[in-house]
């Protein structure tokens, strides 16, 4: 499950997305340079290969560790895209392009939002969409919607199998979640029951309001950290903390976690702000530029790895979950100060990640020494204990 939103401000376009995936599915930030390709070569996507184009643009992608495609990303021309799982009445196809593959292909092949939508539609009609969308749950598959933006505006594209509809964003804000929203198309194709389980209407009501009122990247940081009417997550045994954009796993029917977050500032020279870690409420948004790759260390998998940025942060995140309110109160002021300083004078990506790593290590040490009482209900502690075992957390690293 996910939420993607765009704000059309007087100064230009802002974009944001929370990528909600399986709790142990690490997400990695990758840079791909602009490349010329020989005639007759293929692009090897997640489940199928398709003909490659002569030239692909430079991109920065936030990818689930096992996937060729991406949950969100940007290219050198200032195009940004986020996709959403949507549940429709159309049958799920055989292995084809994942929505995440379509997203990456559009970023690599298009220089404007309008061109990106055209690429998405042409590939969808030619190759279809389908195949396992989860590494840990291979039977889970879905159709997709997309929010595509560039410095001049934004477009929503919604699909059901090879059917599709588009809507130009008129402003001041627009969001999409895990349900179809375009009039007529939604009535014809939406699976309302699965949409209700995903709580997409509840989250979209909040993100649409945030999109309409946001004027700065910091406003969108706050929108992605939103837990609803309470400052800390409120869990349901049905779908965890999925009633608000900052999702935390815990449901017995669906148990999804915000595994990475992205904010794009397209008002001048595009500058992107990413967590590259789960749970934006416990993370820092770091500046990223498409044309300036950074070495972020080891690529993660679905197993704990202390060499991975994503998994190092998970040790902090899972400690915070014991008592979210008390834990975050110990470092929220430092989080705010750091991001305010970076927004005023953005450091290099490498410097920001290094500072973030040091701060998070200090916050984790402070929380471990505080010995906060675990206030989660028993069923939630049990679920996270199982997740820790599956990820092979070393004893003493995760609570």
Structure characteristics:
399 residues, alpha+beta, Penicillin V Acylase, Chain A, seven-stranded antiparallel sheet, 11 helices, 17 strands, 32% helix, globular
Short description:
It is built from eleven helices and 17 strands. With about 400 residues, the chain is an alpha+beta fold. A hairpin with a 7-residue loop joins β8 and β9.
Could you characterize the architecture of this molecule?
The protein has 399 residues and is α+β, with helices and mostly antiparallel strands. The protein has helices at residues 99-109, 113-127, 185-189, 192-197, 200-213, 217-224, 309-320, 324-329, 332-344, 349-370, 378-391; strands at 2-9, 12-21, 27-32, 35-36, 42-44, 49-51, 55-56, 59-64, 72-75, 80-86, 143-150, 153-160, 163-168, 173-176, 257-265, 271-274, 286-288. It has one domain: Penicillin V Acylase, Chain A (4-Layer Sandwich), CATH 3.60.60.10. It has 11 helices and 17 strands. The strands form 4 sheets. A 7-stranded antiparallel sheet has the order 3-8-9-10-11-12-13, with helices on one face. A 6-stranded antiparallel sheet has the order 14-1-2-15-16-17. The protein is globular.
Number of helices: 11
Beta-strand content: 15-25%
Distance between the termini: 26 Å
Which structural class best describes the helix and strand composition? Answer: alpha+beta
CATH topology: Penicillin V Acylase, Chain A
The 3D shape can be described as globular
Low-confidence stretches: none
CATH class category name = Alpha Beta
Structure summary, number of beta strands = 17
User: How is the main sheet built?
Assistant: 7 strands, antiparallel
CATH superfamily: Penicillin V Acylase, Chain A
